[in-house]
Design brief:
The protein contains 12 helices and 10 strands. It has 281 residues and is of the alpha/beta class. It has a single domain, classed as 2-enoyl-CoA Hydratase, Chain A, domain 1 (Alpha-Beta Complex).
Length: 281
């Protein structure tokens, strides 16, 4: 059994951690823990993730696994009307908005540059920003029935997430996932397209990922680190990190348009679910 260790918390001492850490021999399990929000990504959650990764750098862990508590890996960025992303949108300048998007990329890049291999164990829902996060991981294993979408069901941005999909699935499939709001594929399709390494039955996901991690952990840590660095450089030379950064600029530009402002106001007024229903007509 995995042993839960002290969680790195941000904010008040009473606040429930949004990311928890468990150690199981050479494996470190990092679990997104906002199940009531389908593990929607908040800045606090990502800060806790980075804090855990920083602590793990000096540990004897060989492999890190990211997973989600409850019914989802993650529903993507928190765009509920109570969230900072929507609630404070009107207060931000375009430059401040760009900096906020860039902050997401900076935190994802910590996964990319982490010395230990990072595996995304994806189940339930993996939406929008959560797919972006998983693309920064070294390996992705999905449950066959996972529902995966590159863009939210209501179009609030553009050019931030889907360009990174093109590295994995090609530009035409990336466009398909981007042009249709909320377009979904299942885990089997994600593996066939190349978004994920493999798809397994939902009930077998945890054990499959555990066995994969243990097989990786047999390689000495220093060798794993250099193998990861060498392969990552291929994508870096192809522009992966540059394109990720440019996406923040593109998204901030889209957010200044009346169309997006109207949708943000609609979410604030009637809530996300009702706004999606209204958009779909």
């Amino acid at each position: 059994m995995a042993e839960e260790v002290g969680a790195v918390q941000q904010g008040s001492p009473e606040a429930k951690p949004e990311v928890t850490l468990e150690r199981e021999g050479p494996i470190a399990w990092l679990t997104f823990s906002r199940p009531d929000r389908l593990n929607a990504l908040s800045m606090r959650m990502l800060d806790e993730l980075v804090a855990h990764l920083t602590a793990l750098e000096a540990s004897d862990a060989r492999v890190v696994i990211l997973r989600g508590e409850g019914d989802a890996f993650s529903a993507g960025y928190d765009v509920s009307r109570e969230s900072e992303e929507i609630g404070d949108a009107h207060k931000r300048s375009s430059v401040a908005d760009r900096d906020r998007q860039a902050a997401y990329i900076e935190r994802f890049t910590r996964i990319w540059k982490h010395p230990q291999p990072v595996i995304a164990a994806v189940h339930g829902y993996c939406m929008a920003g959560a797919t972006q996060l998983s693309l920064f991981c070294d390996l992705t294993v999905v449950a066959e029935d996972t529902q995966i979408a590159a863009s939210p069901a209501i179009p609030l941005g553009g050019g931030f997430i889907s360009p990174l999909w093109s590295f994995q699935v090609g530009p035409q499939r990336a466009k398909e996932m981007s042009f249709v709001p909320g377009r979904r594929i299942d885990g089997c399709t994600a593996a066939a397209w190349g978004f994920a390494n493999t798809a397994v039955p939902a009930g077998a996901l945890e054990q499959y990922v555990r066995e994969l991690a243990l097989s990786i952990a047999k390689t000495p840590a220093s060798i794993l680190r250099m193998k990861k660095l060498a392969i990552n450089r291929v994508q870096e030379l192809s522009g992966f990190l540059t394109i990720a950064g440019i996406g923040a600029d593109t998204d901030a530009l889209i957010h200044t348009t009346p169309d997006v402002s109207e949708l943000q106001e609609l979410i604030k007024e009637i809530g996300l679910k009702q706004a999606i229903a209204h958009f779909r007509g």
